From TrEMBL:
Segments passing through the bilayer: 12-36
Stated name of the protein: OmpH family outer membrane protein
Hydrolase listed as a keyword: no
Keywords: Membrane, Transmembrane, Transmembrane helix
GO molecular-function term, one example from the UniProt record: unfolded protein binding
One Pfam family, short name: OmpH
Amino acid sequence: MLTRYFVIKNKLNFLVVINIVLIGILIIVFASNILASSKKIVYADNSKLFDSFNMTKEMKRIGEKEFNTRKLSLDSLYSKLQSQTISEGDKKIVMQNFIKGKEELEQFNQNFASEESLKIWARIHGYVNEFSKENKYQLVIGSENKRSVLFADETIDVTNELLIYINKKYEGLK
């Protein structure tokens, strides 16, 4: 009878140890699932990102060069209009060319800015997608000087990190 008591007691102790180990494993699995599924939400300043992106700077230089070339042509026509030696017939032709050139310059400015902005934002969005996947971010909020975000802890601002990333991607360094 006594041996039967020890056998039952040993089985109970064994079951208790097994239960403790199983509970420990469940706790570890549960904790790791919670940590793994924690949402990573960050934000970046849209204005700073756009303005400091190397592609933006490059497109701005290209646009300014084209603008200055066209403006130089207009300045030349304007100088002809101001000349005292120009005949009335030539003045009308130069004036028409000047007006046409001015309209084309304004149209160029509008089209260039909007078209290049769309291209730049498309590139930024592609890079942000890759950046988010690499850093396991589930949500990246774009905020212009935090105006559309009511509150954001500075520790989740990834603007500078993202800016370095997109500039390296653009330059082919990453």
